[in-house]
Amino acid sequence: MTGGNPLRDPRDRRIPRVAGPCVLVLFGVTGDLSRKKLMPAVYDLANRGLLPPGFSLVGFARRDWEDEDFAQVTHDAVKEHARTPFNDTVWQQLAEGIRFVPGEFADDDAFDRLTQTVTQLDAERGTGGNYAFYLSVPPKFFPDVVAQLKRSGLSSAPVAPSGRKPWRRVVIEKPFGHDLASARQLNEIVNSVFGSDSVFRIDHYLGKETVQNILALRFANTLYEPIWNRGYVDHVQITMAEDIGIGGRAGYYDGIGAARDVIQNHLMQLLALTAMEEPVSFDAASLQAEKEKILSAIRLPEDLAAGTARGQYAAGWQGGIEVPGFLEEDGIAPDSHTETYAAVKLGVDTRRWAGVPFYLRAGKRLPRRMSEIALLFQRAPHLPFSATDTKELGHNALVIRVQPDEGVTVRFGSKVPGSSMEVRDVNMDFAYGESFTENSPEAYERLLLDVLIGDPPLFPRHQEVELSWEVLDPIEEFWAKHGKPDQYPAGSVGPASAEALMARDGRAWRRL
Amino acid sequence: MTIDLTDTTTGAIHDALRQARLRLGGVASGMVLTLVIVTDEGAQYDAVRAASAAGRQHPCRILVVIIRRPEQRSRLDAEIQVGETSPGETVLLRMYGPLGQHADSVVAPLLLPDTPVVTWWPGTVPPIPAQDPMGALAQRRITDAAAADSPRDALTLLARGYQPGDTDLAWTRATPWRSLLAATMDQPSGDITGGIVSAEAGNPTADLIAAWLSHAFGAEFGTEPSSGPGITEVSFTTSDGEIVLTRPDGRIAHLCRPGQPERRVALHRRETTELLEEELRRLDPDDVYAETLARFQRTGAAAL
């Protein structure tokens, strides 16, 4: 894209990647995600000088708003949630390009007005006919929106007289379906209008600095790759713990559950990045090829009853506050079988990982918010110490802390000071916040910029989504037929069945 | 807390730092780099404030070298600030007498191990930064040509003495402009045959931008004085007409291209803290700066 521009020198690391002229059209501007993440991310990008002159933001929603009302909503969201300090000049520039189109998704007129609005922006602000459509709406509306974009001619651009073809991109958020069949259906709907190169699926975990750092840690160093295999690794634990309950998301969450909400996308992606072979390059195709190989090599436990666990939080005390149980939450059926905690044991059938179990767990109302990937190494084959000397020595571990306190911990045994030989676990720590003079951008900043630039490596391809569902579907089917989730008190570490799952293998979860 | 040590040694400074950390309950590790600031009594306050703000989120050790009264007997005074304005440590080192000629012997023992060292001269530009005793300690040397009496002479000097790892805040100030110019040139335009950079008289950043553009396009870009503030306009002469970026108020840039609506974008001038933050981000040699400086020396300076 920047070929031919003599001012773009790959050695010139000061000049950031800046998006070309474009319009971002946001569907679902009234949602939480828009207010808390997307609008602040747009502002942060503008403040860092990464948006092009003339960049415009168009909101579309069923609200009786004028441009100014939407600008005010955006302003408030930015003031409250933006990462970078508020600068009035930057805001004024951004505000000049903010438009709002009121309407329903079934309303032809509304989409005709949207077409007019973006065409006008092209003329007034020189956005060049490049549009990104961000579908921050529930998937049930996708067919309507996508069909409308097609009908109104917004989904594809005519070739300009200069011979350049403006781009059209569509951004969609999880959930990418609720099983393999629905994921395929959703993909067909979107793909019927937008080519697969124009579809950007956001998995915000992939926008996180620490997740991208998995690649740097593994493939830029010589220290770790030699031990990154079954010869040294005993097992891997991938965790995403949340301290919150379902909050106001009952409508979405009931019937979905922790496995579909988190394991299918975030944890599977983390597993793929942890387990994959070295890609030949970091372009989208090579990276996706390696991830797909791993996802297709995942093996389910033979006995799903013993190799999985699920739970629902019951009433209890979380972080010093008394909270209701899942079944008492507003909008949840008292006999709901939706799990708020899920744990699965997976194998990866490759030469590198044969026999090494990957334990994945995700849950709500756990003691604290924490996401990590932990590689637990085998114990030394022989310890030239007495058993009492090494009583407090655990597995060596390498822990990638995804959030909070992004960084890496290495855990190993060290001699306790004193006259006797006693070995105990200690930590060596790398923290992002303490090692660089710049702060990590928010995941959405990075991903939004990648969409506008058209850079796809951090977006999962449809094949990855399908492969993840192929892993999860049999588990969901098994759960639907057998029993129901175990209760665990809010604020505890999860159901006893999850502890038992590990205990059967002679292992234990890392402390939350 | 502030600890004053008069007629002291680096060993005593070390001990005082360790004690202060213990008393504040802090940890020794976790500091990102050592920043050596070579300055004088009059400028040290602003420089330290800018550097502390740049290191606000990321603790670093700031060593401020102030050389005073060469005629007196040798003496080292230290003023240690810990837990005041930044999470890091600041040590003001005042050197009297002949010791001022051997400042590196004071600074070297106080550098943090295993982390980068950066030297910054907020005022006077040393003739050859890499050969200056304070510069030789560092892998990154930051000067500021704009602070010199004659910025253009300073740039010429820097060009002559350039060594990989040198950088100048006049170049750092160019980044937002360069970024916008590069984005502008991402869009197709006619053949570029030359252009003009307009700025306040004696603005070294304008000289560097002109040299950078000349080098990249292989065409002549001159500079023209304007009433400012800072850089006010960059224009390209192309086979399809003029492409002009103007910034009359130091805040908002207007982009005009043939046959297209005017576009605007915020382009504010940055504080020293932001400039330092950019400089501390990357510590590898800046080849593009080297080439730009060489180009300036070849053509820009000769045109004066």
Notable characteristics:
heterodimer, A: 512 residues, alpha/beta, Rossmann fold, Dihydrodipicolinate Reductase, domain 2, 2 domains, ten-stranded mixed β-sheet, six-stranded parallel β-sheet, 18 strands, B: 304 residues, eight-stranded mixed β-sheet, six-stranded mixed β-sheet, 14 strands
CATH class of the largest domain in chain A: Alpha Beta
Task: Specify the overall morphology of chain A.
Answer: globular
Tell me the series of helices and strands of chain B, N- to C-terminal. EHEHEEEHEHEHEHHEHEEEEEHH
The helix count of chain A comes to 15
Q: How many DSSP-defined strands of chain B?
A: 14
Mean pLDDT of chain B: 90
Low-confidence stretches of chain A: none
Low-confidence stretches of chain B: none
The helicity of chain A comes to 25-40%
Q: What's the multimeric state?
A: heterodimer
Gyration radius of chain B (Cα, Å) is: 22 Å
For the terminal residues of chain A, how far apart are their CA atoms?
Answer: 45 Å
CATH fold topology of the largest domain in chain A:
Dihydrodipicolinate Reductase, domain 2
Distance between the termini of chain B: 51 Å
Q: Would you summarize the structure shown here?
A:
The complex is a heterodimer of chains A (512) and B (304). Chain A is of the alpha/beta class and 512 residues long.
